[in-house]
Amino acid sequence: INAEYMGNPFLRTAMTGRKFFVGGNWKSNGSRAMIAQLLMQLDQEFRARQAQGVDWSKAELVITPPHIYGDLVMRTLSQYPELPLQVCAQNCSSTGFGAYTGTTCAEMLVDVGIHYVILGHSERRHSKDTDECVGVKVARALAVGLHPIACVGETKLEHDQGRALEVVMRQINAIAEKVPGPEWPRMVIAYEPVWAIGTGVTATPAQAQTIHSEIRRFLESSFGPAVAASVRIIYGGSVTAVNCWDLVSQCPDIDGFLVGGASLKAPDFTTICASGITSRP
After folding, report:
1. What are the residues whose beta carbons fall under 8 Å from the beta carbon of 11, sequence distance 6 or more?
2. Rounded Cα gap, residues 98 and 117, in angstroms
3. Is 257 helix (H, G, I), strand (E, B) or coil?
4. 272 to each of 46, 107, 172, 256, 264, how far by Cα in Å?
5. How far apart are CA 262 and CA 273, in angstroms?
6. Which of 82, 144, 136 is nearest to 109 (CA)?
7. What is the four-CA torsion angle of 44, 47, 49, 51, rounded to 10 degrees?
């Protein structure tokens, strides 16, 4: 990878064909008042960046409110037709319609116009989602027309034991057992080392690139070079408006970010969204 490629987001996209992707995961945060204020601020920030020459059509951007606020966010976004954000769901069940109290199935998300869903987030894996369960969820989501953001990543203990790649590939393999090669380009893979989520500690560009490149190598060996070249692999774990620039400029296999806390701050989230489609200020 030459220096010109590494420092030029426009050249990166042209060479790879992978559109920069950013997801803002609100987790269990939000209120009606907060949503109104945040979306208004995001509209102002995005308009300001557009006036400075940022072409938002070069990125795909989603925000992920709690399920109960999904419809409200979609209706509020309709008030800002130039704000290029889609609504994503935080999870869905491994089952369809039926007697499953407290769950939201993939078909319901499609019915209300949602196109993306986060699956396998570490905070879900910690509670009940096994590798096999995540694989089933991803396959079901794809089957009904959703685009899964499939999360993988190792814990601090696994990282300290030098087992990061082993754990991540185990999680990727569980999805590969359920999802055939032609379906993978419809997915986004999010590498989120658990030890970096919400801790303020971020993987170095070298650490992130190592895992991302190994995931892409697995996809190539399993499904061929065309699939490997087209799947977007994004990074998550204490992404900020400061460290995003080094991650995206130094890591050719990072195609975007899954953002937690910074997605609740309009200026920071806007900067992160712009990092893959404009030069560092």
Report:
1. 4, 5
2. 20
3. strand
4. 11, 31, 26, 9, 12
5. 11
6. 144
7. -140
Beta bridge partners of 147: 116
Instruction: Write the DSSP string, 130-183.
Output: -HHHHHHHHHHHHHTT-EEEEEE---HHHHHTT-HHHHHHHHHHHHHTTS-GGG
User: CB atoms < 10 A from the CB of 157, how many?
Assistant: 10
Q: What is the pLDDT of residues 56-96, one digit of tens each?
A: 999 999 999 999 999 999 999 999 999 999 999 999 999 99
Tokens of 37: 């204020």
Q: What is the pTM of this model?
A: 0.94
Catalytic residue among 121, 147, 159, 212: 121
Among this protein's residues, is 192 annotated catalytic? Answer: yes
Q: Which residues 6+ apart lie within 8 Å of 128 measured at CB?
A: none
Catalytic residue among 45, 123, 154, 192: 192
Q: How much is the pLDDT for 155? A: 95
Which residue carries 């959703």 as its tokens? 146
Contacts of 65 (CB under 8 A, 6+ apart): 26, 30, 35, 72, 73, 87, 90
CB within 8 Å of 52: residues ≥ 6 apart = none
